[in-house]
Design brief:
- With about 230 residues, this protein is an alpha+beta fold.
- The chain has 2 domains: about 15-95, Orthogonal Bundle (434 Repressor (Amino-terminal Domain)), CATH 1.10.260; about 110-230, Jelly Rolls (Sandwich), CATH 2.60.120.
- The protein has 6 helices and 12 strands.
- Strands 1-2-3-10-5-8 form a 6-stranded antiparallel sheet. Strands 4-9-6-7 form a 4-stranded antiparallel sheet, with no helix packed on it.
- The termini are far apart.
């Protein structure tokens, strides 16, 4: 007995190369919209839970949108824009097919509040979003009021010391870092500032969050030479 053939969708009828192109385009759109949502939330100085309550979603859904894991309907974007009193077009700005390039003048980075890290001054001076993941570059300053602060997050990171001396903890180990030193590590292990060993300190902190695409994970790293170009 011959089994009836399963109906095929329009997408299945397209050549594989065309399907892959569409898949990547969708992922790029998700990443772009999620990146704009993340920037909006930070400009409003809200954590994910507070922002979720404001727009009528769960914190988990906000996290998924920001990381490009789910698609967002036009109706939902209109609702978010209305409740945040911003134009709908801000979410679509990243969809233009242009070379990704961001210029941040000295001292004009976005000030970022971190829960439990009030003693540290975070300044977002660079960010990138793509289907491969999300990267951020922060300039972090601390003074004598600095207290130990630890966190555990997804992705990998690289710390480059500009001035001062600190002791940084990664898991069970601590590292004494002075100007010119670099520390690269996996953020999934508990890490953070263990102690300030000078009056003040400033360092660059780069973190990359991976995006999972067709079961594969892309990771990113920066070397000391990359940071020398930025200082």
């Amino acid at each position: 007995m011959v089994k009836p053939r399963r109906p095929t969708s329009r997408s299945e009828n397209r050549p594989k190369a065309a399907r892959d192109f569409v898949d990547q385009s969708v992922l790029c759109a998700r990443a772009a919209i999620g990146g704009e949502l993340l920037l909006l939330r930070r400009k409003m100085n809200l954590n994910q839970a507070d922002f979720a309550r404001k727009v009528g979603l769960s914190a988990g859904m906000i996290s998924k949108i920001e990381h490009g894991r789910v698609g967002v309907s036009l109706e939902l974007l209109v609702t978010i824009a209305s409740r945040c009193s911003v134009p709908l077009t801000i979410f679509l700005a990243g969809l233009e097919e242009v070379d990704d390039c961001h210029y941040t003048p000295s001292g004009r980075g976005l000030r970022v509040s971190r829960e439990g890290a009030d003693c540290l001054k975070y300044e977002l001076i660079g960010h990138w979003f793509s289907i491969e993941g999300q990267s951020e570059l922060h300039l972090i300053s601390c003074d004598q009021n600095a207290k130990p602060n630890f966190s555990r997050q997804r992705g990998s990171a690289c710390l480059y010391m500009l001035t001062g001396v600190i002791r940084y903890r990664h898991g069970e180990r601590t590292y004494r870092l002075a100007a010119g030193d670099t520390l690269s590590f996996n953020c999934a292990t508990l890490n953070g500032l263990d102690a300030l060993l000078s009056d003040t300190a400033r360092f660059l902190f780069w973190r990359h969050k991976n995006q999972h695409y067709h079961g594969q994970t892309t990771t990113g790293r920066l070397s000391k030479e990359h940071f020398r170009c930025l200082t």
